[in-house]
Amino acid sequence: MDTKSAVDLMESSSEVHFSGFHMDGFEQRKSGMEQPTTSATDMYKQPFVIGVAGGAASGKTAVCDMIIQQLHDQRVVLVNQDSFYHNLTEEELARVQDYNFDHPDAFDTELLLCVMDKLKRGEAVDIPKYDFKSYKSDVYPKRRVNPSDVIILEGILVFHDPRVRELMNMKIFVDTAVALHIKLFSADADVRLARRIRRDTGEKGRDIAVVLDQYSKFVKPAFDDFILPTKKYADIIIPRGGDNHVAIDLIVQHIRTKLGQHDLCKIYSNLYVIQSTFQIRGMHTLIRDAQITKHDFVFYSDRLIRLVVEHGLGHLPFTEKQVITPTGSVYTGVDFCKRLCGVSVIRSGESMENALRACCKGIKIGKILIHREGDNGQQLIYEKLPNDISDRHVLLLDPILGTGNSAVQAISLLIRKGVPESNIIFLNLISAPQGVHVVCKKFPRIKIVTSEIEIGLNKDYRVIPGMGEFGDRYFGTDDDEQLVVPSQ
Ligand SMILES: Nc1ncnc2c1ncn2[C@@H]1O[C@H](COP(=O)(O)OP(=O)(O)O)[C@@H](O)[C@H]1O
Ligand SMILES: Nc1ccn([C@@H]2O[C@H](COP(=O)(O)O)[C@@H](O)[C@H]2O)c(=O)n1
Ligand SMILES: [Mg+2]
Question: Where does the Phosphoribosyltransferase domain start and stop, copy by copy (predicted)?
Fold first, then answer.
């Protein structure tokens, strides 16, 4: 593929980074060349979505404010579930003391989903600003929210609807429980009630009797029935809310790490793209060049494969081991996982076997041959696997993950042979987003380790920018060289 084609291809992903490329400074040109099948919507930079739930007055807003402050160099927006309270009818307004604002039905979840969908697709949205005094969401002008790197969705019931939960990359539950207190829940409720009384009588100008009545009639029962049961969905529970600086620091650190990763890694926690360096980019530049010599193609592919294999081995379990050093000191280290094997997908996967053997002395390597016809005519032709494969961790080798169809065939076979899904590490050099989606969704417990994520697939289901037929290039069957007869 020439430079011009690559530029044209990337037009559709303006400002979105793929495989380390981006469009800044490129002149926009059109040509009749093949376009990736990845839709424009798939190419939006995915924001990192954090859900923050917890009882009313537990400190959700305080926690969000601290996260936003600490992420000062990122574009962060806060979306409050309060903004999606239904407007009350005249009848409901007349008897507002009987209205349950803590029930899931009090919120317009469809509107919330629509807003979140737009933000995730990179569109700006106008969000209602709720007025707690008039119980209306159309008193103030709407708030314009621009698409951002991080979206924080905060509210008592943001974990209630599974469709809303699905949007989140990280779920935080804010707790006011005091760890040393024997009656954990009552302490938690007491703190929330005390804060609520102070807040609602102050900020919302409500009468204390009304606050207490609403609390016993609706707030407390709803906490027990709807909010507390969603605590189990949280990835992180923050005791002591905004006072918990250690938890907030750790969360901010985690978000920063995630933001530095490829967008797909934010979606799939089982996808690992090795940290890019100029050495790695340089090697990719060489092996993707159609003009490179066969010798150099093999040399630089081998170097990259070795890196991927080493990275993949880092995901194996380990046990602690102590040794005595020549100085007589104790060194506490780890022992490698011994029950492992490789499985290469013939033929290009065989190019990864040497690197695996170089890292794991005497490792058993099985083989799978899958016949490919077009996009979906996948057929398993041959397999030769270690008899005890079900007891082993498996490093599945295939340099290219394209549509994901061959990978699904190979992984399904391993699972049929009794290999636990979580014992499979799939190693490739390059992965198309389509293949990542297919494999990570179908097998959420396997790990994929790759060195670069591609733009997508073309109409012939070939990975682009890609590197052509890897097996042919690696094993030298892609040219018309004369037959080499070994000398006698
Ligand atoms: N750690 C804390 N210690 C004392 N008061 C707090 C703390 N966190 C929040 N508050 C106060 O409690 C009230 C409720 O906190 P807020 O963050 O608004 O809760 P939520 O958003 O969960 O309803 C506010 O008036 C706030 O100032
Ligand atoms: N008109 C309204 C709407 C909601 N509430 C209460 O707000 C609480 C949720 O907001 P937090 O910031 O505390 O999470 C919830 O308990 C509702 O009862 C209200 O009082 N009036
Ligand atoms: Mg709040």
Answer: 276-477
Strands 125-127 and 143-145: antiparallel
Provide CB contacts within 8 A for 144, sequence distance 6+: 124, 125, 126
The C-alpha atoms of residue 410 and residue 431 are separated, in whole angstroms, by: 16
193: Cβ below 6 Å to ligand 1?
Answer: no
Is 65 exposed, middle or buried (CB count within 10 Å of its CB: 0-12, 13-18, 19+)? middle
Q: What distance in Å separates the CA atoms of residue 336 and residue 327, rounded to the nearest whole number?
A: 24
C-alpha of residue 171 to centroid of ligand 3, in Å: 16
Give pLDDT tens digits for 36-52.
444 434 445 689 999 99
Report the chain's terminal Cα–Cα distance, integer Å.
41
Element (H, E) at 306: helix 294-313
Q: What predicted TM-score, i.e. pTM, was given to this entire model?
A: 0.69
| CB 464 near ligand 2, within 6 Å | no
Q: What is the 3-state secondary structure (H, E, C) of 124-139?
A: CEEECCCECCCCECCC
Nearest CA to ligand 2 atom 9: 56
62 Cβ inside 6 Å of ligand 1 = yes
What CATH number belongs to 48-259?
3.40.50.300
Q: Are 267 and 444 in contact (CB under 8 A)?
A: no
Ligand approaching nearest to the C-alpha of 82:
2
pLDDT digits (tens, 9 = 90+) for 60-108: 999 999 999 998 877 889 999 999 999 999 999 999 999 999 999 999 9
Indicate if ligand 2 lies below 6 Å from the C-beta of 119: no
Query: Where are the CATH 3.40.50.2020 domain residues in the chain?
Result: 264-475
**CA 56 to ligand 2 centroid distance, Å:** 7
Reported ipTM? 0.94
CATH topology of domain 264-475: Rossmann fold (3.40.50)
